Amino acid sequence: MYLLLAISLLALLFGAILGYASIKLKVEADPVVDKIDAILPQSQCGQCGYPGCRPYAEAIANGDSITKCVPGGQPTIVKIAEIMGVDVPSGDAQEEPVTQVALIHEEMCIGCTKCIQACPVDAIIGTNKAMHTVIADLCTGCTLCVAPCPTDCIKMIDVKPQVDNWNWKFDAKLVIPVVNTTDNEKKLVVGE
């Protein structure tokens, strides 16, 4: 009885100490890291040398190169340079990235599951010793599944622009007439 009471009091005391410490010692996130992380494509592909987009954003904020994001390409580099207040690196400038997805040639697949283990976004489904396939809507085109495949049955194919994946670039100088149906008042929404 006394033992249970003592353990309960200790648990309550340590819980109160931990609760106070979590409030008092709370570390706020770096807003620059949050802005950079929001720009990165969130493919978690690891092509930059970091395990995900957030660690790469932290590395950029600490002075690492801004040109390592392959899926983001040159547009991402330009946006990061604006946030960091640095010039866009010249030279080995990346072109606009080509959207690709993995395609598994199913007749060659032996069901080894190495591609499933390599996929950072779980876009490949299948089971051991059975055929695998790629869910194209989830595939980020990171190519991490291609190298571990022992039968070379995974190829990267370009995604042709369609209505679902079209890049609808917004013209900042566009003028849009808007009618408020409750006031019958017409107004113009002007960009920039």
CATH architecture of the domain at 100-158: 2-Layer Sandwich
Amino- and carboxy-terminal Cα gap: 72 Å
CATH class value of the domain at 100-158 = Alpha Beta
What is the H-and-E element order? HHHHEHEEEEE
DSSP strand count: 6
Q: What would the principal axes of the Cα set say about the shape? A: extended
Return the structural class. alpha+beta
Mean pLDDT: 83
- CATH level 3 topology of the domain at 100-158: Alpha-Beta Plaits
Strand content range: 5-15%
Binding site for [4Fe-4S] cluster 1: 45, 48, 53, 69
Pfam families: Fer4_21, FeS
Region (Hydrophobic): 1-22
Organism: Haemophilus pittmaniae
Note down, in words, how this protein is organized.
- The protein is an alpha+beta fold and 192 residues long.
- Among the domains are: 31-84, 3-methyladenine DNA Glycosylase II, Chain A, domain 3 (Orthogonal Bundle), CATH 1.10.15; 100-158, Alpha-Beta Plaits (2-Layer Sandwich), CATH 3.30.70.20.
- Helix content is 30%, strand content 14%.
- The protein contains five helices and six strands, in the order H-H-H-H-E-H-E-E-E-E-E.
- It has helices at 2-24, 31-39, 53-61, 73-84, 114-118, and strands spanning 100-104, 124-125, 133-134, 154-158, 175-180, 185-190.
- The strands form three sheets. A two-stranded antiparallel ribbon has the order 1-4. A two-stranded antiparallel ribbon has the order 2-3.
- Helix 2 (31-39) packs across helix 3 (53-61).
- The longest helix is centred in the first third of the chain and has 23 residues, at 2-24.
- The protein starts with a helix and ends with a strand.
- The model has no long low-confidence stretch (mean pLDDT 83).
